[in-house]
Write a structure and sequence with these properties.
Shape: elongated
CATH topology of the largest domain: D-Amino Acid Oxidase, Chain A, domain 2
Number of helices: 9
CATH superfamily of the largest domain: D-Amino Acid Oxidase, subunit A, domain 2
Number of domains: 2
Radius of gyration: 21 Å
Oligomer: single chain
Number of strands: 21
CATH architecture of the largest domain: 2-Layer Sandwich
CATH class of the largest domain: Alpha Beta
Largest sheet: 9 strands, mixed
Length: 380
């Protein structure tokens, strides 16, 4: 850490999740920054929200109440598949089923919406439709949607960072961002040592920890909402192993392949969120997660899901992934998942970035393309 503290850097990226790693690679490869540092608190990359999620590569179907989010997913999916082919799993059939009651969309509306965003949709054949309880499900559709292997994604990120010459600091926590004389100063703690990195640009990609930094960093303008969520991992019965399933659109569920562990995730709109709160700089979301008593709700998930898809009751529960999920408060009611991309005027060269989905990374990169970033360690 000492050698890094003595040098000036083009950019410091805080947070070694998928977004932080992708931004660091972009700056080195596309913007030709030669001195890029990625700082991650964990001992490895892509260990938090990038791993503890449903591993879905969205194609728009999930957002019938947010056309912009849905359409951006349609645009971004082919690029993600092209850029990360080893991480994308396509060898399963993805189903969306529309509930007869309590759904915010009808089958006809869902089919029309899918065609409007240009997403493939077909009525499921009888052998597939029979997996569902017809008294509760109006229609079942076969769609085009994939899963990703987060361990493969992490391997790709490590390889790209190394090939791009990005310096990676693991096991290191950033505490402050400060305004220095013609530069930004990033205070770090790791391995019992402290260091201060001098840089022209800072990209705060800490997800739920966006507002936990001190110094001259005053936080994001946009309000954030946090949830402690449970993603159950199950061994699906043979009848369901070749499928990913989502029942729309309301208090229902998803069951998706989780390639990193050769299992399926099970999430439920009612039972997956355990606890929620509005972001506060004085409340560390990750400390709140560490202190949380993790009692699984998988039995309640399975009982409710079993009403719609009886064969799911033959699943075997294996584990649960507990994580903090963070969204923009303004989008809580409409299911939109735009990115947060804030340039902090009081700290020139400092950005905060938050994505709602894995494919949102391309929306971030488009924003970066429009920024007048220049290589160099001091401000003009």
């Amino acid at each position: 850490m000492t050698s890094l503290a003595q040098a000036s850097h083009d950019a410091v990226i805080i947070g070694g999740g998928f977004y932080g790693a992708a931004i660091a690679t972009y700056l080195a490869q596309q913007r030709k920054f030669s001195r890029v540092v990625l700082v991650e608190q964990c001992d490895a990359l892509l260990q938090r929200a990038s791993y503890n999620n449903q591993a879905r590569v969205h194609n728009g179907y999930h957002y019938p109440r947010s056309f912009t989010t849905a359409f951006r997913s349609r645009i971004n999916l082919p690029r993600f598949v092209q850029d990360y082919p080893k991480a994308v799993r396509q060898d399963f059939t993805k189903l969306y089923a529309i509930a007869r009651r309590n759904s915010k969309v009808t089958a006809r509306q869902f089919e029309r919406f899918s065609r409007e965003i240009g997403a493939r949709i077909d009525v499921a054949p009888p052998r597939i439709a029979m997996l569902f309880e017809p008294r509760l499900i109006e229609q079942v559709f076969c769609v085009e949607e994939y899963a990703f292997d987060s361990t493969q994604l992490a391997q790709s990120a490590r390889q790209e960072l190394a090939a791009s010459g990005v310096q990676v600091m693991l096991g290191t926590k950033v505490t402050n961002i400060r305004r220095g004389p013609g530069t930004l100063l990033v205070d770090c703690q790791g391995n019992g040592e402290g260091a201060t990195l001098s840089t022209r640009y800072v990209f705060n990609c800490t997800y739920s920890g966006l507002n936990q930094l001190g110094g001259d960093f005053s936080g994001t303008r946009a309000q954030l909402k946090h949830e402690i969520t449970e993603m159950a991992l199950v061994k699906a019965p043979p009848l369901l192993r070749e499928f990913g399933v989502t029942v729309m659109d309301g208090p229902f569920f998803s069951m998706m392949p989780f390639p990193a562990r050769s299992l399926h995730t099970l999430s439920h709109v009612r039972y997956t969120p355990h606890l929620h709160w509005i972001d506060d700089a004085g409340v560390d979301p990750y400390q709140r997660l560490r202190d949380y008593h993790r009692e699984s709700r998988v039995e309640r998930m399975l009982r409710d899901v079993g009403r719609y898809m009886p064969s799911v009751l033959d699943s075997t529960y294996v584990d649960s992934l507990f994580e903090v999920k963070t969204i923009l408060l303004k989008n809580e009611g409409n299911d939109g998942r735009p990115i947060l991309f804030e340039h902090h005027a009081a700290l020139p060269g400092c950005y905060s970035v938050l994505g709602g989905k894995i494919d949102n990374i391309y929306d971030v990169l488009e924003k970066l393309d429009a920024e007048p970033l220049v290589s160099g360690s001091t401000f003009d």
